[in-house]
Amino acid sequence: MNKTGNVSSGLACFFIFVMFCTGVAPKLFAQDFNVDATVSENQVFIGEQFSLRIEITGSSMRDVSLPSLPDLDGIRVLSSTPSRSTSLSIVNGRTSTSTTYTYTLIARETGEHTIPPVTIEIGGETFETEPVRVEIIERGGLSQEGDRQLPDIFLEVKVDETNPVPGQQIVASVVLFFKQGIEVSSFQPTAGWRTDGFWKEELENIRQPQAETVVLDGVRYRSATLMRYALFPSRSGELSLSEFPMNVGVRSQPSRNDPFGSFFGSGSNQRRVSLESDPVSLTVRPLPAVENALGMNAVGDLRVERRLSNTEVETGETLELITKVEGSGNIPLVRKPDYSLPDGLERYTPQESSNVERRGLTIRGDKTFTELLSPRAPGRYEIPAERVAVFDPQSRSYRYINLPAIEFEALPSSAAQIASFDYQPVRLQPVTGLAVWKNSGSRSVFDTIWFWLLLIIPAAAFIAALQRRKLMLRLQNDKEFARSHLADEVVATRFEKAKEWVDAGHAKEVYNTLHKAVVGYVTDKLGLPEAGLSDAELIEEVKNSGADPASIKKLKSILEKCATISYAPTGSKTDFRADIDKTEILIEELRKQL
Amino acid sequence: MAFLLSGWLTDISAQQSRFDEANDLLEENSYRDAIEIYKSIADEGYHSGPLWLNMGIAYTHLDSLGAAKFYLMKAEKYSETRELASQSLEFVNERFSRRSAVLPPLPWDRFFQWLSENIGVGWLVFIAFFFLYTGAGLLIWSWFRYDLHKLLRYSGYSLLGVSLVFFSFSLIVNYQDNRYGTGVMVDRQGPVYEQPQEASSVVSTAYEGYIMRVDYRRSEEHADWKYVRLENGMYGWVKQDGLMVF
Questions:
Q1: Which of B13, B15, B30, B143 to mutate to test the interface with A (most CBs of A within 10 A)?
Q2: What are phi and psi of A167, to 5 degrees?
Q3: Chain A residues within an 8 Å CB radius of B61
Q4: A431 inside 8 A of chain B by CB
Q5: A169 in the same domain as A279
Q6: Which of A113, A374, B75, B114 is the most exposed place for a label (fewest CB within 10 A)?
């Protein structure tokens, strides 16, 4: 065994020697060094001092040169000679050394500045640090008012999106702000953070919160993100996150050299404070409507695929229709798409399983819906192609994914064949031949015009009959009205009679009848006694009724002619007919006036 | 007119030709293909007793007994297929492993259901109009015939009253026809929920072939859900996927 070990160590020495000769070893050793540049504050006031620390760590420290500071824009170096500190540590037999050079700088010009890479030579090799960003701001904001408004230590919940859509992931960060001079030794969230309307998932823990400098209302604070949550709104509208409660252990004695480096460290004057953030309100926009696709409440960068477990199955047995949704997004909130399946397929309650990973700031994973289908009869089945919609919060629109049609064959099963003998439905006789076809576009009876017409007709008949009845009753009871109402009929009869006398050649009778017709009509209309009135009195009554003078003149003329001819009948039939016509015209005129 | 008539005849003959084609497929035991054609005819708005009957028979062969029952019940409403549909329904009903307890409907429910199924709104309205016109005629006549005044007036009022009753029946039947439908469970089984939410408590379970009365108006408020009254008198919500309604 010893021999073998010796051979191994010998071989190792040989390889190290070869590597040294070929130049590989020096590079490996060189890679042991790590050079890092940091500033005490990332945000400084103009005219304020701050320090630049250049730390060289490695297994051994050989021939380390002074860092070479480049020209700094807007920043002045107070002392070109840095202070130096060295530390040595041995862990598990491994030695590591650390040398830190600290320069004191002073901020000169406001704005965003970058300290370029600092060069340093170690063992003849040149190393460079990463550039460091520094923001120099005006001191004007630093006021007593700012001190009064913001407490020394407070908690805030910051969300990365205030107008999400339902299902969109937002990240809520719990950020602790505290003033210089306060050290945070521990934190412990307490129960009571309500996130109604959200599905909440805690993101991967932040192992060592990093503090950075921020200036709030002109006051410098340190801020550290302590926890992060992924939130998924489940509905649209105004939603709010309640106050986030947390107990924080603080020490009032600052550590000048490493203000936040002693996070979780121990110290004196320690006390616990209970903090609560302000509530946060969000306006969740509604999702747009899905067009010609199946909705599944999927939001994010998600892929959807669908497959069948088998392409052949015996009738009555089951096969699985598997839909898998994968990617980053609201995996747990995704619903099963409601596929339309062909007839003859039995569908059982679907099963679903999901796997969610919380890496970084996104929720990733997959969700699988498994539907058990069972064909009831043999044959070839096709599950039709579908189009499902996934909402993309980046483009704020739907991405449509086409799921192709899937076919499978249902084979007859022996059990089913046996059963089918009993089941042959001798009584099931289809009807063939000519069928009586009807069109199903029939409306309700009450929506048709004829229904309302038929309903109106009796109502109209009732109104007409009532009017008629009223007239008849008045004719019976009111004699004057009856005479006036029937005057037209009576005069028409008399004219007919007069015409008959004309045909018979009785001139005297013609004019007697005409006289009777005219007098009768006027007395009927004016409600005068039928007998006992002279022609002059009649004309006077007509005048009093306001008749037209021309008509009165005609009336007088006709009455005179009737009186004259009654005593000395002369003239031809043509004259008689002309007189009848004139009288008819007169009556027509009087009808309008009386 | 001739043009319209020829168009109508062409349409009818096209449906008949597809119906014949589907019947051939049915006889060749290609049930699903036959159903596809039957469905396409129905989708175009044409229907007939034989169409529903044959669809019911095709579904029976496919062992989709819920759907078979649904179409056979529809075929039962046509005089030409009533008897065959009843026989087939009897056969299908025998094959269901579970049958619902039946709570007899209330007498007036049965009465209006009978009116709806055997007379229909159209005929009820026609009868109501007949009595309305006769009654109105007698009443008007009574105003002019003093000798028969009393007889005519009472007869008129009586007939108007009868007309009003028939109008009321027609309105109630029309309301019920529009508000309620008949649903048949086509899934093997499905829960009946107290509320239209799957998280709600289950009041009963409906099995394939169960008949239920669907309340269209209440169902309008919740997409994908139907409010139903089961034959055993229980009310609840079922998912509409598992239900066929007419």
A1: B143
A2: 95, -10
A3: 377, 425, 428
A4: yes
A5: yes
A6: B114
Cα A388 from Cα B204, distance rounded (Å): 33
CA distances from B37 to A344, B22, B47, B138, B227 (A): 15, 6, 13, 55, 31
Residues A265 and A300 in one domain: no
pTM: 0.46
What are B66-101's pLDDT values in tens digits? 889 999 998 988 888 888 888 888 888 888 877 777
Residues of A in contact with B26 (CB under 8 A): 430
The answer to whether residue A386 sits within a structural domain is: yes
Give contacts of A 55-84 with B, CB under 8 A.
Answer: none
Are A69 and A109 members of one domain?
yes
Structure tokens at A39: 């500033």
Outline where A212-355 has alpha helix (H).
none
Chain centroid to CA B190: how far?
23
User: Which pair of tokens denotes residue A383?
Assistant: 């599950």
Interval A495-508: pLDDT, tens: 999 889 888 888 88
Instruction: Clarify whether residues A560 and A485 are in a common domain.
Output: yes
A234-260: pLDDT as tens digits: 888 999 998 898 888 888 654 444 444
Instruction: Report the gap between the CA of B116 and the closest CA in chain A (Å).
Output: 13
Are A200 and A239 members of one domain?
yes
Single out the residue in A225, A253, A284 at which a domain terminates. Answer: A284
- Nearest one of A157, A150, A318, A295 to A219, comparing CA atoms: A150
Supply the CATH number for residue A550's domain: 1.20.120
Q: Tell me, yes or no, whether A154 and A241 share the same domain.
A: yes
End-of-domain residue from the set A263, A284, A305: A284
As a whole number of angstroms, the distance between CA A377 and CA A416 comes to: 9
- In this structure, is residue A17 part of a structural domain? no
Measured between beta carbons, which residues in chain B are less than 8 angstroms from residue A375? none
DSSP codes, A46-70 = TT-EEEEEEEEEES---SBPPPBPP
Q: Does A462 touch chain B (CB under 8 A)?
A: yes
**Interface mutation target, options B32, B78, B124, chain A, most CBs of A under 10 Å:** B32
Domain total of chain A: 4
A379/B27 Cβ within 8 A? no
Q: What letter does residue A435 receive in the DSSP assignment?
A: -
Phi–psi pair at B243, nearest 5 degrees: -130, 140
Domain membership of residue A448 (yes or no) is no
Q: What element of type H or E holds A506?
A: none
Question: Are A215 and A242 contained in the same domain?
Answer: yes
pLDDT at residue A223 tops 80: yes
> CB distance from B130 to chain A under 8 Å?
no
CATH of the domain at A364: 2.60.40
Mean pLDDT of chain B, nearest integer: 87
| Beta pairing, strands B243-245 & B180-185 | antiparallel
Considering the domain boundaries, does residue A452 fall inside one? Answer: no
**Angle at A578 (CA atoms; ends A575, A580), nearest 5 degrees:** 110
Contact A377 B170 (CB under 8 A): no
Q: Is A365 left (phi over 0), alpha (psi -120 to 50) or beta?
A: left
Cβ contact, residue pair B45, A440, below 8 Å: yes
- Paired tokens of B68: 């078979």
Residues of A in contact with B35 (CB under 8 A): 343
Query: Comparing C-alpha atoms, which of A99, A90, A109, A92 is closest to residue A45?
Result: A109
Q: Which domain holds residue A500?
A: 477-593
